[in-house]
Amino acid sequence: MKKLLYILLFSVAGSMVAQEKINTDGIALATYVPQQIENVPASARKMLVNRLAQIITKNGISENPYNSRFVLVPNVTVLSKDVTATAPPKIALNLNVTLYIGDGIEGTIFASESIELKGVGTNETKAYMSAIKRLSPKNAQVLEFVEAGKTKIIEYYNANCSNILKKASALESQNQFEEALVLLTTVPEASTCFDKVKSKIKVLYQKSIDRDCKQKLSEATAIWSANQDLNAANEAGAILASVEPQGSCYGQVKSLYAKIAARVKDVSDRDWKYQLKVLDLNETYIKAARDVGVAYGKNQPQNVNYNVRSWR
To answer: According to the UniProt entry, where is the signal peptide (predicted)?
Structure first.
């Protein structure tokens, strides 16, 4: 049920008129290499994943590996495999790599591009790696492909902005603030929908950090009350040090921290190693809210089965 909920968090869409070079702030993609991809050796497979990540990050997109709805998927086909007449002989491969950007939950392809790559190596693995090295993030075909994918993702969000807000409100009513933040902070700032969700992001972020503040204050207080020694101080301190300074109970957090720090000074005659967070005036609530969503995503099962079997 938890896995289903998390997948449903991403089941939203959007539409806008495509532009040749759109502002794509906030778009996120995950790289996904299907297990059934054609006999690519493990080392070459790892290199392929790294190349895909570069295609994402070097073309104005954020890489989001935490169950992102939108994915960049490759398919590799061997067009030819030959043994050279050199001494020593080498393996020469001619690969066709087809790249897809699309909705991995619905199975909808947004953009695709096929690129031929040639590689030579002393063995098959090295030949694969030699070919994959030629997959450049700045290849003209790749650039055009990525731009098409970006545009479709923006369109996807804009078309269903009202659904996004409805789902977020439903989650909020169930006190599932972090889940709602995941949903809303995936809306790209480049979309027209973002202006409609950003005020809700601020409200949900505050509710999330207020609840987190109270829970951590209660936990740290219980630990310190039970045993006021250095071990208890350090355990409570680690908890208090993670509280956001904008949390509603932060004043109480500072009071408890001061008491523990004074006790540590008396007992050990040294300053305490833990420090409370201070307000970062340069960090926007949008960035902070995204961090909450990422932290939540990291703690979720990373086992979404993407619907990409037909992408070949």
So the answer is: 1-18
Alpha-carbon distance of 12 to 159, in angstroms, equals: 9
Cross-strand partners of 78: 95
**Chain CA centroid to CA 252, Å:** 33
Give the model confidence (pLDDT) of 215-240 as tens digits: 999 999 999 999 999 999 999 999 99
Boundary (domain end) residue, out of 158, 191, 220: 158
pLDDT tens sequence across 289-312 = 988 888 887 777 666 778 888 887
Sequence-separated (6 or more) residues with CB below 8 Å from residue 5: 179
115 — phi, psi (to 5°)? -135, 135
Q: Pick from 97, 98, 115, 100: which is nearest to 30 by CA?
A: 100
Evaluate whether 26 touches 190 at the Cβ level (below 8 Å). Answer: yes
Lowest mean pLDDT among 21-30, 133-142, 150-159, 271-280: 21-30
Instruction: Indicate whether 23 and 153 sit together in one domain.
Output: yes
Whether the bond between 89 and the residue before it is cis, its omega within 30 degrees of 0, is: no
Residues 89 and 203 both lie in one domain: no
Task: Please give the structure tokens belonging to residue 50.
Answer: 């790294």
Please state the three-class secondary structure of 285-299 as a single string. HHHHHHHHHHHHHHC
Cα Rg of the chain, angstroms: 25
H-helix or E-strand spanning residue 46 = helix 42-57
Residue in the structure block whose two tokens are 């970006």 = 150
